[in-house]
Amino acid sequence: MLELKRKAIIISLILVSFLLFGTMACVKQRPTRKSVSLPTAGSKDLVSKTVDSTAISKTLPDTAGTKRPAAVPDSVSVNGKMVAVTDSAARDTLSSPDDLQFVVKYTARDSTIMETLAKEVHMYGDAEVTYGTINLKADYIRLNWITNEVYARGTYDSTAKKMVGEPIFQDGGTTYNTKEIRYNFESKKAIIKGIITQEGDGNIRGNKVKKDTEGNFYIQKAMYTTCNLTHPHFYINAPKIKLVHQKQVISGPFNLVISDVPLPIALPFGFFPFPKKKEIGTSGIIFPTYGEEPNGRGFYLRNGGYYFAISEYINAQVTGQIYSTGSWGLGVASTYISRYRYNGSLSLNFNRNRSSDEIDQLIKKGITNDFSIQWSHTPKPRGNSTFSANVNVSSNSYNQFQEFDTQKYISNVASSSVQYNRTMGQYLRGAASLRVNQNFGQISAETGRRENGKTNISSDFSFGVNQIAPFALNNPRGRWYESFRMGLDFSGNYTLTNVLSTIDTSYTSLGFRLTNTIDTARIGKQEILPFNTGSLPDMLKDAQFTGRYSLPISLPNFKILRFLNFTPSMSLNGEVFTKQYRYSVAGQGLIKMDTLQKAGTQYSYNFGAGLNTRFYGTFFVRGKRLEAIRHTVIPSMSFTYTPDFTGDAFGFYQRLQITDDEGTVKELALSKFRGIGSGVSNGKASSVVSFSLNNSFEMKLKSKSDTASTQFEKISLLDNFSLGGNYNLLADSLNLSNITVNANARIGKNLNLNFNMNLDPYTYVPDKSSTAGRKINKYAITQGQGLASLQNLGFTLGTNFSPKKTDSKNKPATGANSTATPEQREFVEQHPELYVDFTIPWNVSLNYNFNLSKPGLSKTTIIQAVNVTGDLSLTKNFKITASTGFDFSAFQPTITQLSLMRDLHCWDMSLSWTPFAGSRTRVSNYSFTLKVKSSILQDLKVSRRRSFYDQSAY
After folding, report:
1. Least CB-packed of 42, 397, 582, 839 within 10 Å?
2. Burial class (CB within 10 angstroms; exposed 0-12, middle 13-18, buried 19+) of 762
């Protein structure tokens, strides 16, 4: 009996121990969270097997509404032995060489429960699973290593009364915010509920989603929008959308919803491409703008075409325009970039314009062509050579009728240049350039188009040696002569222009008559030819190549009497010509001129010296704040002597003896290279004394602060007041030049003044050939006409008002989290006029311009106008801008524009109105724009400014 009792007790102990062991295996542990390292970027993708999506749903039942399991198996088999689960938060890994390529790593903050029979792991609280480049985070994750599936969802927070820890699925660089997800590591398929993902500038949202093995998403009840708010201002509503991974969005029938109001207009399908990360954009259609020019070319479709995203280095767009009157146009534009080397843009435009006038159409007149070529090439500084280009060439009337920007419309000039520079070693340098300068002429009252445009094309090259100090090459010791320096410059120029130079063949000017046939259109005035191939022979005949060389020399400076700076100077200049002139006497008072195709050279040299000093005068006031006024005077004087080069020893001039109409024999010196009537130096000796006097005034004020009574501040009263001129000691008449007076000052803190004046000291007498009269060798003061006659006077007053700069130390940098590329940010910074900055509260600029012109005895001409520009931010997202002025000479307003701009977060709204255009070739008009704004501009806190246009006049 005792033995039976002992056996029963032993069996009972064994049973109790077994039960306790099984109970301990089921206890949940609460360890601290441990971080898990992610796999490297170079890991290979998973080689998956195709799994039926229906099989996935059968393998794992939906546990969205299930509770945590109450009991789990009590042991786990490790190496054939049963062990207890004591630390479920350790870095457990599930690896199967037959199915998966990477190690599955998982962790959880709250708890991790492993079911060995079901082959599942349940993770609670900030759970995270990492597999290769795939990362999943959620408040609850279930992992099954038999089916290679993972299921994730959020949990309901009864305190906050909302779902928390909803799944965030990351595949490479793309992130998907979801409500519930089931994903298979092997097949890469997934079923998702409630997705939000960012693609390009927009984001996509949907209720139910399927993901296939190729990474495409099939979304039901989808929304596509570029608004980044939780509740977007607008979106595209589509029953079905296919998201082709990182390429495009393709949708079925859709409609636009704005502020939760669906628009009744629907489209049968949609295609929205995503720009690639390394490209400027994606190829696509550019939709045209439409409208009407009230008095011009009629109804139009303008600037529509196609955009080609060729590569990350270059793109192109082809656009066209068509008008109801028969006018049309084509344009090609391209931008290119090479990182760290250069960037640029090219634009070619052609327009064929047809007049809307019925009579012109019947007689087949009024058809004109306009073109424009714009090329900008900007190199990055590197190496010893640079090539840059800034080309802006167009027909005379292109800006008048084709440009939409106001500043370009009123512009009457354009310039272009292409330059190449290279340095060779320490001293040698070379350069070549091509320049085009255009003046589009004036608007004709008859045709309404700009006529008599002037075009000048010049090609230049240069070669030089930097100045060298020959006496200081080895061991300079600071001697005075070591500062002597000299160099070499050689340059060439070839100019082609449609403005043929004036020829003065009058007997009064020359002292003889030419027997050659002279173009009468060029006598006494310029002849402007049409710039076309028909005028090319005449332009080439008048063109001439000129080469120039010089030896720049710097001589040592000296001090005289400690206060006077004495600077000697010496220079040698020369020119090379491709043709020469030969003269012969053809009779009494007659000379014949022949052109020889023979190269030749002409040079000149001069000597000179300069003397300048500086002295001060102080007037002490000792007032309450005004302590003193200081006057600074800088007088300077220079002397330059040029020898006579008309002698036979130089060979630059041909001497002829001729008998004039009165029978007097006189000798003439005629240039072999300059021709007749060129208006240049006659080669005679000159001795010129130049003088100038500069003045400046400033006052010394005590500080307003009592604690800084000994501190002073200086305020400028007159920045500069100068006058200057020169006197030729060897000239036979009109020795004294005009006197120029210039001044500029800052009045107060905001008012700027610029003043200039030109005075002529000689007397003018009436002359039939000129309304200004003729200047004679008599001073005006000796004829009772005052000290000098005013030739020109002008001044400008300008001011700018804006609020004081706020302290920006604690403000975040604009666009700190921007997704814009460096090139896009650089473009915004380089073209601030194209964008509206709503952070500036207000700004006002006011300018008054006055100009008086009275050459000689002609009538006085006065031009004066006031211009006002300003902007005001009514709110942080609402700005109004205005630009206007008044022309006192015409007594009418200048071009007036009013604009309203509203930043609607993901939309831009603007209204522009031109109540007064200032010309009959423009009409008053308005435009309204409402368009979606790029998310890049949202990050940069700026809005794109759309220029207003209202061209007409066809």
Report:
1. 42
2. buried
